[in-house]
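Follow-up to my post from last week.
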Amino acid sequence: MQAPFPSLFADDLACRRGDRLLFRGLSLDLQAGAACHVTGANGAGKTTLIRTLAGLMAPYAGSVQRAGSLALLDERPGLDPDLPLARALAFWFAFDRAADPAAITAMLRLSALGEVPLRYLSTGQRKRAALARLIGQAANIWLLDEPLAGLDSASQALVSDLVRSHCAGGGIALVASHQPLDVPGMTSFAIEDFAPVRAQADA
Amino acid sequence: MIAALLRRDLAQFFPFTGSGAALPVVFFVAVAMLYPFAVGPDANLMGRTGGGIVWIAALLAAILPLERLVARDIELGYFDQLKLRGMAEEAVMAVRLAAHWLSFGPPLVLATFPAAALLGIEGETFAILLLGLVAGTPGLAAIGLMIAALTASLRAGAALSGLLLIPLALPILIFGAGALARGDAVSLGFVAAISLALAALAPFAAGAAIRAAREN
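User reply:
Got it. Predicted complex:
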């Protein structure tokens, strides 16, 4: 699963939702250790970009190439809301053969919540649970869609720490977020820079 | 990995472990219980028509689990997470079909024993009924999975899936209940053949449907 030199490469990407072109001509080249921050207004296409890079949606034009395993964190945690947190996480920890589940839940301050069904947890707690799933997967490439949404400031700092150590360990992170992350050397671009010119459509 | 998926799906759908999953079986027995009240205690009439009622009850019971079968896990992002881990949608749907049938077919076949007793069905007729349900429920489960996957992203999906299942399940009903009327088990071969063909097709159709659901 673990490629020694992961990479994420997109060439002249264009994506659309319905019949609306969101962006075009977007190219990316992320090598091992790279962190990239994507900004953009609501509806500008950040989520579509991430889902396209993840291979969940087909690009309208252009291509995506990946080397290495892939992890996605978005607003859907992928965890069963009716199960107690510990059991919901245990499914993915077992599936991903996570190295040290207890340490991961402790790091995200979830140890005390193990018996609580997921649907009783707050937005931030659920986000931390999704982060635990993400870390357990130990993937090379992290695609994070709004990882800071709903988190308190201590947890937001923790996300920055996690991204920093992930990239220091040779991983790649692409983060779509409205808030800045404290990661040295993180590149940044606004998705609006790739918005199509709509001369006729908006006139 | 397949075993882990099957365990998770079974925990979710199996009667008395999953939430509300016993409903189809309860519904099935309730229909058999109500029928004698509705037509009166004529043992001869019930023996002749009871098998057909059991088939109709089975078909309608197959509609009940469809709402939760696929839509919920699309909303959870469960299928997306499996896709990122390199699992093909077809494999995930094949596991889902197995779990759906296991949590709905065998309990229904077992519930046929009390249902048949309530309706006074016995002897050879009972044997044909039981065999017919064993042969027919995989087909009902396969149709149900395809419909659940196709309607998962629609707002009125739950109501629509009931309407869609009924015409698609007609061949199974005609051959399955027809075997009872003629008193021979030959047409059960047709039921089994239809079931197997549907079960082979369903993972591909359902897999394509959840891929398509990602685009909107």
